[in-house]
Amino acid sequence: MIAALAPLAAHFYATAADYHGVASPARIAKAAADQGVATSVVEGGLHALRQALSEAQPNEIVCLCGSLYLVGEVRSALQNSSENSSATRKE
Q1: CA angle in degrees (0–180, nearest 5) for 73-75-80
Q2: Residue 62: which domain range?
Q3: For the whole model, what pTM was predicted?
Q4: What is the pLDDT of residues 68-87, one digit of tens each?
Q5: Running DSSP on this structure, what letter comes out for residue 23?
Q6: Count of other CB atoms within 10 angstroms of residue 22
Q7: In 10 A of CB 31, how many CB atoms?
Q8: Cα angle vertex 78, ends 26, 20, to 5°?
Q9: Hey, which residues does 38 pair with through a beta bridge?
Q10: Total domains in the fold of the chain
C-alpha cells in the first residue's frame, strides 16, 4: 500500500489504532521513508490527522489510510468533536 501511495504523497504521518496486533507506527514510517517520502510518527490517529491538516497547504489533499479500527477511531472522535462544538455554539 505504501509503495502505491508514495509517488502521490509529500508526507506520511504514521500512527496506529488502539488495538492489539496492528503494525507499529515506527515500522510504517520506515517503510514510507524507504520509498523516499518524509515521515513523522504521531501517537493517536486523531492527532495524526490534525497534524496533517495543520501542515497541509490549502491546495493539498489529506488522505487517511489504515485499518477499519483506525478509521473508526478517528471518525468517532471527529463526530464527538463536532457534536461538542455544536452544543457549545447553541448555549
Answers
A1: 95
A2: 2-90
A3: 0.77
A4: 999 999 999 889 877 665 55
A5: P
A6: 16
A7: 18
A8: 40
A9: 11
A10: 1
